[in-house]
């Protein structure tokens, strides 16, 4: 579908950008196609020093080395089929709508901040103009998606079927994380992300991609596991039916499993991958799950891409609707507890600066 030298649109963070395909990896032949002296040539990935090796998490699927138009070449990277899309009118319209929605989210955030200065993000935090150009919250359209969010926030779900649906933990989590959603024809899923959570993703994107900061690990506030445990405990008290409590428990367990498997593939920005590799090497984290290391902002990234992950499973419509209901309930709870979970008063302490040496290694990976 995408050829070397061709134009495309690619997700970086939750936004869609114009890009050019520099190389194409074929997992069957284990070769990379690239442009050389005006001609497309094919080379062995492992035997050519001039070729950026394909990341291990993408090596089993067709992927593309892209250059984002107007960006420095240090941002060139390999992306999977879930992040690359045709350069056509439909996707250009999607790109435009993401920018507009980001602007609206930022505008609303600023209005709320003026009304509640005491509980806002703090003075000086929003010093950069036009952040909307680089982010929208939780966006990554199913099969029009990025590594960190959902493109439309509104997608469609098929009609519910009669009978008890399968739970999502039985619906091929491994396949969902390891495959491109474009290979499936399952109905897409609707998730409505609250504006306050979208604003958090705006800030998250800005800190990592513009300020070159990364999240402190282990999470200085609460971890993914503690967040889900607190949510389950709070909601369980409101549920009288054992069946509903069981559904809640399974949902939270499913999220933990999704998080563990999708973190290195979908939930990290390029700048964070070196930190992830360092975590794997540290002895103190040897037997610690990612859910007990990473914090709620990474959980929010996962929730944003759930529509794509679920589309890539064999879950039936009734199961999908149940997950949508549970996720939107979790969104509401996150908003209610947003100050405690995301530490808005001291959010800069949640992120740490990176050295120029770290940036050089991380962006060169």
Characterise this structure.
The chain contains 10 helices and 9 strands. By secondary structure, the protein is of the alpha+beta class. It has 2 domains: 7-87, SH3 type barrels (Roll), CATH 2.30.30; 117-363, Enzyme I, Chain A, domain 2 (Orthogonal Bundle), CATH 1.10.274.30. α1 (89-115) packs across α3, α4 (224-236) packs antiparallel against α5 (242-266) and α5 (242-266) packs across α7. The radius of gyration is 20 Å and the shape is globular.
Structural class: alpha+beta
Q: Identify low-pLDDT runs.
A: 118-176, 178-185
Order of helices and strands: EEEEEEEHHHEHHHHHHEH
Quickly count the helices: 10
Strand proportion: 5-15%
- Radius of gyration computed on alpha carbons: 20 Å
Helix percent reads 25-40%
Report the biggest beta sheet as strand number plus sense, adding barrel if it closes.
7 strands, antiparallel
CATH architecture of the largest domain: Orthogonal Bundle
Subcellular location: Nucleus
InterPro entries: Chromo-like_dom_sf, MRG, MRG_C_sf, MRG_dom, MSL3_chromo-like
Main location: nucleus
GO biological process, one term: positive regulation of transcription elongation by RNA polymerase II
What are the salient characteristics of this protein?
10 helices; two-stranded antiparallel ribbon; about 40% helix; 9 strands; about 375 residues; alpha+beta; Enzyme I, Chain A, domain 2
In short:
By secondary structure, the protein is α+β, with helices and mostly antiparallel strands. The chain has helices spanning 89-115, 173-178, 195-210, 224-236, 242-266, 273-281, 296-311, 317-336, 338-342, 356-363, and strands at 7-12, 15-26, 31-36, 39-44, 63-68, 77-79, 84-85, 213-215, 351-353. The chain is globular, with a radius of gyration of 20 Å.
